[in-house]
């Protein structure tokens, strides 16, 4: 299989629909197939990065745990939309080391740098 | 659907359409469209046959929504298959393989 670089763009909140989890599964599968994968959390997607998520009361699997497992699949290139983070009042929330906050110019550059964009 | 038709009309080739999450409903054989409307399932089937486009439903998305082909219906002991025969059920690897082998990839998010 040819090797391409894929940027998975997650724009949906983690528990509002099943699409958020599906998009992360796409990223994991791509990493399993040894593609170069980045994940960008944009818009409401930044809510994925909230610490101390407890989804047990809504009977949903914890998405934060899925994201925490990314390094096991060598999926270590993660970006967060800095402006969306501010909009959601999450600026002071600590980010894991492997997540880089990007502004609109940097995002534009990301869209150019990757071979394919998978927007969800 | 209209995008796929337009792309093909302009002479491009579509290797595969991968249906993920709620998109898998596009392959349901038990959807009944209003008589005065179009039948999108049939339209996809015709597009696939005419232009040799693979129509793939993501297996985990499909099973969770009750979309089973005859093999899956048998495996999970369900009464009947519910996917249109023009569609195939397969894994996310098919999406990644299509990414790797195509020069363009278009996604339609929810």
Folded structure, characterized:
- The complex is a heterodimer of chains A (120) and B (110).
- By secondary structure, chain A is an alpha/beta fold.
- Chain A is built from four helices and five strands; from the N terminus they run βαβαβαβαβ.
- Chain A has a single domain, classed as Hypothetical Protein Ychn, Chain: A (3-Layer(aba) Sandwich), CATH 3.40.1260.10.
- Helix content of chain A is 30%, strand content 21%.
- Chain A has a five-stranded parallel sheet with strand order 4-3-2-1-5.
- With 110 residues, chain B is α/β, with parallel strands linked by helices.
- Chain B has one domain: Hypothetical Protein Ychn, Chain: A (3-Layer(aba) Sandwich), CATH 3.40.1260.
- In chain B, helix 2 links the parallel strand 1 and strand 2.
- The two termini of chain B are 15 Å apart.
- Classes of the chains: A alpha/beta (120), B alpha/beta (110).
- Chains A and B meet through helix 1 and strand 5 of A and helix 3 and helix 5 of B.
Question: Which structural traits does this protein have?
Answer:
heterodimer; A: 120 residues; five-stranded parallel sheet; globular; B: alpha/beta; Hypothetical Protein Ychn, Chain: A; three-stranded parallel sheet; 5 helices; 3 strands; 11% strand
Order of secondary-structure elements of chain A: EHEHEHEHE
Overall geometry of chain B: globular
- Give the name of the CATH architecture of chain B: 3-Layer(aba) Sandwich
Number of strands of chain B: 3
Strand order of the largest sheet of chain B: 1-2-3
Structural class of chain A: alpha/beta
The total number of structural domains of chain A is 1
Distance from first to last alpha carbon of chain A: 24 Å
Mean pLDDT of chain A: 93
> Helix fraction of chain A?
25-40%
Largest sheet of chain B: 3 strands, parallel
The CATH architecture term of chain A is: 3-Layer(aba) Sandwich
Which structural class fits the helix and strand makeup of chain B? alpha/beta
What is the number of E strands of chain A?
A: 5
> At the first level of CATH, what is the class of chain A?
Alpha Beta
The DSSP helix count of chain A reads 4
Q: Portion of residues in helices of chain B?
A: 25-40%
Give the strand order, joined by hyphens, for the main sheet of chain A.
4-3-2-1-5
Which range does the strand content of chain B fall in?
Answer: 5-15%
CATH topology of chain B, which one?
Hypothetical Protein Ychn, Chain: A
């Amino acid at each position: 299989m040819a090797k391409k670089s894929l940027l998975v763009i997650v724009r949906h909140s983690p528990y509002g629909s099943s699409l958020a989890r599906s998009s992360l599964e796409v990223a994991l599968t791509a990493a399993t197939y040894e593609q170069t994968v980045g994940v960008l959390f944009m818009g409401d997607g930044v809510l994925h990065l909230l610490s101390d998520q407890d989804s047990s009361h809504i009977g949903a699997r914890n998405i934060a745990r899925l994201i925490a497992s990314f390094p096991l699949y060598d999926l270590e290139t993660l970006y967060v939309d800095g402006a969306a983070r501010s909009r959601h009042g999450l600026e002071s929330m600590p980010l894991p080391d492997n997540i880089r906050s990007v502004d609109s110019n940097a995002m534009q550059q990301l869209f150019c740098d990757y071979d394919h964009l998978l927007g969800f | 659907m209209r995008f796929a038709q337009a792309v093909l009309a302009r002479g491009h080739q579509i290797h595969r359409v991968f249906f993920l999450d709620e998109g898998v409903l596009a392959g349901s054989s038990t959807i009944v469209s209003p008589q005065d409307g179009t039948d999108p399932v049939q339209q996809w089937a015709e597009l696939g046959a005419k232009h040799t486009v693979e129509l793939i439903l993501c297996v985990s998305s499909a099973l969770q929504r009750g979309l089973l082909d005859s093999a899956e219906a048998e495996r999970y002991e369900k009464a009947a298959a519910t996917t249109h025969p023009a569609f195939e059920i397969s894994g996310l690897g098919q999406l990644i393989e299509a990414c790797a082998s195509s020069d363009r990839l278009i996604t339609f998010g929810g």
